Amino acid sequence: MTAADKTPVPAAEPREAGTQLRPGLWQTINERYPGSMIRKESFVSQASLSKPLAEARLTLISSCGVHCKTDPPLDVCHPFGDFRFKRVPSSSKQRELIIHQLKYPHDDADLDLNVIFPIERLQELHLERRIGSLTPNFFSFIGYNMDPERFERTVAADIADAVVQQEHADCALLAPA
Amino acid sequence: MSVTVARDVTEAVKVPRALFLPWPMGHHFGVPFHLDLQRRVILAALMLLEESAEPGTIRDLPIKWADVRREAKSMLTIQGQRL
Question: What is the pLDDT of residues A135-147, one digit of tens each?
């Protein structure tokens, strides 16, 4: 065996390898923000779509912190997070919306919101009848909350109730920024 | 139906189904003004919504970030946008 054979092979660069770009994120978050993450012991059960997608009503939910420019922003400075959410009319134009979030890079999303909140692509797919309809409102909140139990009781439960009881969605597309 | 760029986080929180993209945070649907790519991600997610049967299904969309960037760079140069 030559010296060259003993040289460790460098791990493939994630951008070229097609692996998670920021490996070990779960561990990093738990070290940096202990107790902040929701943990589940078993899988959330999977509900099947009860009708073809072309007849279904879809909603969009994201932790990207987008809201209408006419709405006051959520509190991005509170040390425990803001346990509220925003409704974003699904008919909104991109120029009517703004991202107010500090915890992820949104330079590109500021140029084109659709990279994290693809509202215009969903409007197009609806017009093409690939999606039956969109809920009148989509949903957004800030994905920085230091109390996962409170988050589940408030933001998650309130959005779930609104999605089912007020918006009558058949399915949801989630974009955890 | 979740779209994720953090496979390990998604595995830990045990979502019913997710589409994994090896892309940076905040870029779940690609890059600015790349309408075809944004649309492709959504359609792949919706296909998984219709097809997946087992809770915890995580499907890969095997598009490397390096390829996305190369494509975006040439596209934005043509459009006169900054990269």
Answer: 999 999 998 888 8
Ranges of each domain in chain B: 2-79
Chain A residue with minimum CA distance to B30: A115
Residues whose CB falls within 8 Å of the CB of residue A8, separated by 6 or more in sequence, listed in order: none
How far is the CA of B66 from the CAs of A91, A175, B34, in angstroms?
33, 22, 15
In chain A, residues 46-85 whose CB comes closer than 8 Å to chain B: 46-47, 49, 53, 64
Asked if the Cβ–Cβ distance from B2 to A43 is below 8 Å, we say no
Mean pLDDT of chain B: 90
Environment class of B72 (CB within 10 Å of its CB; exposed 0-12, middle 13-18, buried 19+): buried
What is the value of ipTM here, to two decimals? 0.92
When the pLDDT of each residue in chain A is averaged and rounded to a whole number, the result is: 89
* CB proximity B24 to A under 8 Å: yes
Per-residue confidence (pLDDT) for residue A47, from 0 to 100: 85
Per-residue pLDDT tens over the stretch B6-50: 999 999 888 899 999 999 999 999 999 999 999 999 999 999 999
Contact (CB<8Å) A37/B13: yes
CB contact, 8 Å: B26 with chain A?
A: yes
**What phi and psi, each to the nearest 5 degrees, are found at residue A96?**
-90, -5
Is beta strand A57-62 parallel, antiparallel or unpaired with respect to A171-175?
A: parallel
| Residues of chain A positioned with their CB less than 8 A from the CB of B25 | 22, 104-105, 177
pLDDT of residue A2: 58
